[in-house]
Design goal:
single chain; binds 2-acetamido-2-deoxy-beta-D-glucopyranose; Leucine-rich repeat, LRR (right-handed beta-alpha superhelix); 14-stranded mixed sheet; Leucine-rich repeat-containing N-terminal plant-type domain-containing protein; 26 strands; leucine-rich repeat; alpha/beta; Leu-rich_rpt; about 375 residues; about 20% strand; seven-stranded parallel sheet; elongated
């Protein structure tokens, strides 16, 4: 807006403010209701019942109607819209016809599982009180607006299963209250910004199934609260940073289906809380570190389809919680250690396509049900 236009706009606002009675909360709410109605008109509603309660208000109505009887709408004590939840409502359309200016009291905005498409407008930054944003499982496209980085109240940001492209804006690093960042299954490219390491309250980070490239930032090792680090199925390269060993709350570490190279850092043996460790389908090499014996809660370890060499460390027999161990398609040599028979919870052991020699230890025959040397394991994919 040019400065003269801006002046005109400000003057108009001033005149309106002066001429009209000072709006009370009820009329603010009427404006907010009309904003939603305008948006509704632009939508294709495949589930007729979902927005049928969103009716134009009769002239004499009390404006609290949207608050008390509109589907998916919750207001604050002053009658302003605070929560909008249209999960799975059969809606198809865009966000072009909605005024974010009139939704500034929103704390929760949930459009999960619909057919929304087109861009996420940068004006979304106006929702400065928003704590919970879930636009997942739609067809939103274009970039993630960098302006989201100014929505510093955000604790939950779900944009997974859309068609978002371009790179992850580094401005998101300013979201220091964020607990969950879930961007999996999009078309995101470029590298993971190291500013993500500044989201000090993050406990779930899921960037899997995108087209991200470049290294895993060393700074991710600063995310002390992280319980899930999922970056499967990208084209990440470089080595696994040893800083990850500082993530002492990590349960899931999924780095599989990338182009990571170099060894597994010995320090990863410090990840005492780890239950699922997947680094399969990379270009990792070197020997399997015996320090992994210290991952005492580990249930699944998938190292298949890499270039690991050397012996299978006998120390792995100490992994008493392990139920699945996949080492297939590597360059491992030597014999199968007898100690593996000590993994009393083991159900599947995949050792095929290696350079192993010697007999299959008789002790492994003591297992009640053990699949050994069979097909590649099914992938596990938590969200
Ligand atoms: C239509 O939407 C309503 C409200 O979300 C929901 O309860 C109902 O199950 C939906 N019906 C269908 C057929 O999806
Ligand atoms: C609004 O007006 C209609 C008739 O035009 C009437 O039936 C209804 O009771 C009125 N509602 C209120 C809240 O006054
Ligand atoms: C929206 O409603 C669904 C169920 O209808 C619920 O599972 C979900 O948690 C709600 N979202 C928010 C943000 O409250
Ligand atoms: C937000 O709510 C407050 C009262 O809680 C109200 O004064 C204000 O007009 C509302 N703002 C918007 C943009 O709705
Ligand atoms: C996803 O976006 C790309 C452009 O970035 C477009 O070519 C493609 O058709 C879109 N796919 C869907 C399912 O919307
Ligand atoms: C992380 O935060 C620090 C301190 O707030 C700041 O100096 C630094 O530039 C930020 N790092 C990134 C990569 O944004
Ligand atoms: C990998 O991610 C792409 C989306 O980027 C998806 O189409 C494909 O199915 C995923 N592959 C696997 C094996 O999950
Ligand atoms: C782990 O954190 C400590 C202290 O924050 C730091 O000194 C150390 O360099 C980190 N370790 C790695 C491997 O990054
Ligand atoms: C496992 O942890 C113990 C205790 O911290 C340590 O003494 C041992 O060296 C570790 N094992 C390996 C193979 O690093
Ligand atoms: C795998 O490792 C062997 C040496 O152990 C090396 O010769 C080969 O180039 C490596 N292959 C790949 C794809 O890294
Ligand atoms: C199995 O575990 C027991 C007790 O921890 C130990 O004494 C034994 O040496 C282990 N067996 C092998 C083959 O490592
Ligand atoms: C693995 O065995 C094959 C033949 O069995 C041999 O050609 C290859 O050099 C061996 N590789 C390693 C890394 O030992």
């Amino acid at each position: 807006m040019s400065s003269s236009n801006f002046l005109l706009f400000s003057l108009t606002l001033l005149i309106i403010t002066v001429l009209l009675p000072i709006p009370n909360f009820a009329s603010a709410s009427l404006e907010e209701a009309n904003n939603l109605l305008k948006w509704k008109v632009s939508l294709e509603i495949t589930n007729k019942s979902s927005l049928s309660s969103w009716m134009p208000l009769p002239m004499n109505s009390s404006a609290s109607v949207p608050c008390t009887s509109w589907f998916g709408v919750v207001c604050n004590a002053d009658g302003s819209i605070q929560k909008l939840n249209l999960t799975s409502s059969g809606l198809r359309g865009t966000l072009q016809e909605i005024s974010f200016f009139l939704l500034q009291n929103l704390t929760r905005f949930d459009l999960r599982v619909n057919n929304f498409f087109g861009p996420i407008p940068p004006q979304i930054r106006l929702l400065s009180k928003l704590i919970y944003l879930d636009f997942s499982q739609n067809q939103f496209s274009g970039e993630i607006p960098p302006e989201i980085g100014s929505m510093i109240s955000l604790e939950f940001l779900y944009l997974y299963s859309n068609n978002l492209s371009s790179s992850i804006p580094s401005s998101l690093g300013a979201l220091t209250s964020l607990n969950v960042l879930s961007l999996y299954q999009n078309q995101l490219s470029g590298s993971i910004p190291s500013s993500v390491g500044n989201m000090s309250n993050l406990y779930r980070l899921n960037l899997a199934h995108n087209k991200l490239s470049g290294p895993i930032p060393i700074d991710l090792g600063k995310l002390k609260s992280l319980t899930r680090l999922l970056v499967s199925n990208n084209t990440l390269s470089g080595s696994i940073p040893s800083s990850i060993a500082n993530l002492s709350n990590l349960h899931f570490l999924f780095l599989d289906m990338n182009k990571l190279s170099g060894p597994i850092p010995i320090e990863l043996g410090n990840l005492k809380a780890l239950t699922n460790f997947q680094v399969s389908e990379n270009l990792l090499s070197g020997s399997i570190p015996s320090s992994l014996e210290n991952l005492s809660d580990l249930q699944c370890m998938f190292l298949q389809k890499n270039n690991f060499s050397g012996l299978i460390p006998f120390e792995l027999g100490n992994l008493k919680s392990l139920t699945e161990l996949a080492l297939s398609n590597n360059q491992l040599s030597g014999s199968i250690p007898l100690s593996l028979a000590n993994m009393s919870n083991l159900r599947s052991l995949y050792l095929d396509w290696n350079n192993l020699s010697g007999p299959i230890p008789m002790e492994l025959g003591n297992f009640k049900s053990l699949n050994i040397l069979v097909q590649p394991p099914a992938r596990h994919a938590p969200s």
